[in-house]
Sequence to fold (219 residues):
Amino acid sequence: MDTYKQLPNNVNNKLNCSTCHLNEGRVAKAAPYVGMNVVYPKYRSRNAKINTIEDRINGCFQRSMNGQPLPTNSVPMQAIVSYMNFLSQNIKNKNDLQDNTGFVTINKELVPNADNGKTLYVQHCASCHQLDGQGLYPNNTYMFPAIAGSQSFNDGAGMARTYTAAAFIKGNMPLGQEGMLTEQQAVDIAYYFSHLERPIFANKADDWPKGGAPKDVRR
Ligand code: HEC
Ligand code: HEC
Fold:
């Protein structure tokens, strides 16, 4: 809940894990942590390896937090994994996870319209995340997180991909009015804000070493 202040050596922006994994990682449509104990270790085509839960968490440190990985055996990494295990106490196997798909599904054939996305962003998002997307941090406190600019996630993050961002915002934004956007509107807005200026992830070219990269991956 308080990641960037607690781990300044590992986080280079002003986001917390819970900025995206909403409500302490317990929201069905915002990639909940419940069940990570039975999902990982898991093969991921992004690095063409079996990933442990620590690998997966470090993926978010390096991309979503635009930062540095934590050593597997470090106290903060083990604390994060313990918390996920605590949330997963009742999950014994994958059958217990039927409703946990992470995000709502989005039709990836929908073609984004960036101009419409900008208009909708101004209407539905800018009041909180600001016109430039840099959020609001009055007196250095966290109020509305940056969705663009130097304090946001980098372009190697899942949230920088149009259809992943669309799935997040369709299920969760505008905060307090979630569900009001159509799939097409979510895709339009997602394309617009995910392509605003943000930090660059240096090693993108090494992703999907065996091919199969989704079409919305940033190059
Ligand atoms: C900018 C938004 C964002 C932030 C901040 C963020 N994540 Fe994520 N995280 C995502 C997205 C999006 C996915 C799914 C990515 C995908 O499937 O491409 C994800 C996936 C995950 C997963 C795997 C979930 C699953 O169902 O397999 C874990 C575990 C995770 N994140 C942990 C963390 C932790 C711990 C932090 C803080 C250090 C963090 N994340 C910060 C956006 C974020
Ligand atoms: C009423 C204020 C409000 C509105 C309107 C709103 N958001 Fe958010 N948004 C938030 C808050 C607050 C969070 C973080 C929640 C937390 O930390 O618990 C958030 C989180 C996010 C995130 C997570 C990742 C990040 O980089 O910060 C994205 C992306 C996002 N909003 C996009 C949007 C989009 C797109 C819209 C318009 C469709 C929108 N929001 C409308 C308040 C708002």
Observations:
- Residues 3-97 form a domain with the Cytochrome Bc1 Complex; Chain D, domain 2 fold (CATH 1.10.760.10).
- The chain has two domains: 3-97, 114-206.
- The longest strand covers residues 42-44.
